[in-house]
Amino acid sequence: MSPTPAHDRAAVPGLDVDWDAAGRWAGRLVAPGPTGSRDELLHVVDDLRDAAERARPLAVRASRLGPSLTLAGTQDVAAQVLVVDRPGWARAAGQSFAALVGGLASDDGATHRLVPSGATAQTASLLGLLAGRVLGQFDPFGPDGGTAVG
Q1: Residue 130 domain flag
Q2: Which residue among 7, 14, 113, 136 is least enclosed by CB atoms within 10 Å?
Q3: What is the largest CA-CA distance in the chain?
Q4: Range(s) of the domain holding residue 78
Q5: How many domains does the chain contain in total?
Q6: The domain that contains 142 carries what CATH number?
């Protein structure tokens, strides 16, 4: 089977991945994160929340999205900040990809998913690898127009 030419890629119906399963499997594959006392971990979580709040204006400026946010009337809407462990990040990333890619729509509008376990396992491996390397991200498909996950 040859690769799909770039001009035909829009015709490809979708990715055959069970994103929920990929997120769950990745959560089992990822190495555990740093450990500490409960007080230390609570302090780290507070620091991450503060960093997420400080990062928003920097991200808006760097992405040049300020005018678009103003037009949409969302310039003052803060994203929900979630601080999660590595398995939690993997599950959230799987859900984000599911919202981005979606299922396969049939002629009657119903959504069907083709879920070969090979593609799901490969995706789980990738999410498991990334879960230990991503400190924070913004999920535009999260509730209320976005979620910061870190």
Answers
A1: yes
A2: 7
A3: 55
A4: 15-104+111-149
A5: 1
A6: 1.20.150
User: Cα dihedral angle (28, 51, 146, 135), rounded to 10 degrees?
Assistant: -30
Helix (H) or strand (E) holding 43: helix 38-63
Q: In what order do the strands lie in the sheet with 137-139?
A: 80-82, 147-149, 137-139
In a domain, 6, yes or no: no
- The verdict on residue 32 lying in a domain is yes
Mean pLDDT of the chain: 77
Residue 78 is predicted with a pLDDT of: 75
Query: What local confidence, expressed as pLDDT, does residue 27 receive?
Result: 92
- Token pair for residue 13? 């119906």
Q: Which of 101, 83, 131 is nearest to 19 (CA)?
A: 101
With respect to residue 1, please indicate whether it lies within any of the assigned structural domains: no
* Closest alpha carbon to 130 in 52, 22, 20, 16: 22
In angstroms, the CA 4 to CA 9 distance is 6
Closest-CA residue to 128 (of 20, 34, 29): 29
